[in-house]
Amino acid sequence: MAPKRPKGAGAFPKAVDTPAPSRPDPDALYAALDLGTNSCRMLIAQPLGSGFHVVDSFSKSVQLGSGLERTGRLSRSSMARTVQAMRICQQKLKRNGVRRMRLVATEACRRAKNSRDFVSQVKRETGLSLEIIKPEEEARLAVISCAPLVSTKTEQLLVVDIGGGSTELVWIDLSSVPRRDRPAAIMRLHAGFHTTDSPFPAAKVVDWISVPLGVATLRDQFNDVLDDSARFALMSWFFEENLADFAPYKDEQAREGFQIVGTSGTVTTVAASHLGLKRYDRTKVDGLRMTSDQIDKVIRGYLDLGPHGRRTDPRIGEDRQALIMSGSAILQALLRLWPTDRLSVADRGLREGLLYAQMSADGVLEDGPF
């Protein structure tokens, strides 16, 4: 029988996109662009209290990593699609007068042999400077984006960011941090996982790992397996095998005070399916706590639908249907391994982390509960 979750162990954050002036001062705006293996996504926001208000956004499936597993290179067609998306981002940045920004690329560009040529092409054709970040920074940014979702009762925290080309896991010990300061201690990790000069009680990063398997790369590993259920099972066990070097994997953990926060399109899609949403609603998904039984029921439903049924299911969506089973295989492996029967759903990730990090570094966020 699944273990019971400590009562009141969840945290429900205030939405970050709360009301703000209709014409923000360009000097107060920040932008964050996340170019991943599958998607190009951008937020433009202004600080508001201890969070921020979203002024403009962009999201497009560009499939930059299409064919990368086979060739080791970004294809001409995927680069062309991505450059076109970056042009739209450039227009939004220009229209809003944004000066403070970080535009980052992750696993696909880290792995591709021709990534430097691609970054030069983006600069030449859009004027935007892409920065290829290392796995540790990607993991750190995902963690701080989830700070508002961390319960004050949480002593051991696992943050999981399931991307297109990689999955980052970060295990954090909060037991030495006073309860009310725990979300803020997570936010202070924007300065680094192993900083020691903070005057405040620190969140301790026990271990972290970047597994080079995300929803796109894991799917590509098993494209030749025709049976839907067999492919799903193989993907889940293969992902688990790749966690062997992650220290907390080997150690038994206490159930009390343990929280998993999951951030990704997979996690939010599973949550939307659980809620039966025909039209996605971030306010209903972000901060939702799902039990492992609820997640298993949704995943079993996906398997029952089969490939054709998933393609036509409005809860999954056209962009996500090709990747939902590889993401679900990762999610199932994680819940199989660690002592919790609940997952906190985060509709936030690298972009939000980039914004929080920039704003925190500039000292424009108010201290206090999120």
From TrEMBL:
InterPro entries from the UniProt entry: ATPase_NBD (IPR043129), GppA/Ppx_hydrolase (IPR050273), Ppx_GppA_N (IPR003695)
Disordered, as annotated region: 1-23
Protein name: Ppx/GppA family phosphatase
Domain Ppx/GppA phosphatase N-terminal: 49-359
Pfam family, one: Ppx-GppA
Gene3D superfamilies, sorted: 3.30.420.40, Exopolyphosphatase. Domain 2 (3.30.420.150)
